[in-house]
Amino acid sequence: MRTDLSDHRFTAAGLFTEAYTGMMNRFAAQLEEHHLSPVEFEVLMRLARSPGCRLRMTDLAAQTSLSTSGVTRVVDRMERDDLIRREACPSDRRSSYAVVTEPGKARLDDVLPEHLELIQQWLIEPLSADQFTGLMASLRAIRDAVNPCATAGTTDDEVHLPPQ
C-alpha cells in the first residue's frame, strides 16, 4: 500500500466523523422520545430560526441535508402532523414557503430544554471559552467551503461565547 494510513488528514476527518456521529446518536435518542426524527427536528429548527419562522422550500433544501424532493416528502409528512404548513409565495407563483405552525412551535418548546442540556454536556462543557470560539469559527469556515448555500434565505449568526 503506497498511501500512508497514518496521515493526519485521515485522523482529522475520522475525529470529526466520530464526534458528529456520537452527538447525533445522543440527539436521535432524545428526539425519538418526542416523536421527531432528526430530519424533522432540523427542519423545525431551520424554520423557527428564520425570519417569520419560514423559508422558501428551495432555501430549506439548501440549508438541510435533503434534496428538493426530500424536502417535499418531509414537509408533506410534517404538514400532515400539523407541525408546519405551506404558504404561497406572493412574488413567485412557482415557489412556496414552509412555515412553522403553533403546534410545531409547541413541539420545539417541549424538545429544546433537554436538547440544550445535551448540547451543553457534549459540546460546550468539554471546551474552554477560547476553544469554543475557535470551534465555532472553524465550523463556519468548513461549512461555508463545503455548503455555501447553507444560509440561503437567512442571515448567519455571529459567534457567541458559551455562558460560563
Automatic annotation (TrEMBL):
Molecular functions per Gene Ontology: DNA-binding transcription factor activity
Pfam families: MarR
Domain of life of the organism encoding this protein: Bacteria
Gene Ontology BP, a term: response to stress
PROSITE patterns in the record: HTH_MARR_2 (PS50995)
Signal peptide: none
InterPro entries: HTH_MarR-typ (IPR000835), MarR/SlyA-like (IPR039422), WH-like_DNA-bd_sf (IPR036388), WH_DNA-bd_sf (IPR036390)
Annotated HTH marR-type domain residues: 1-144
Protein name according to UniProt: MarR family transcriptional regulator
High-level lineage: Bacteria, Bacillati, Actinomycetota, Actinomycetes, Micromonosporales
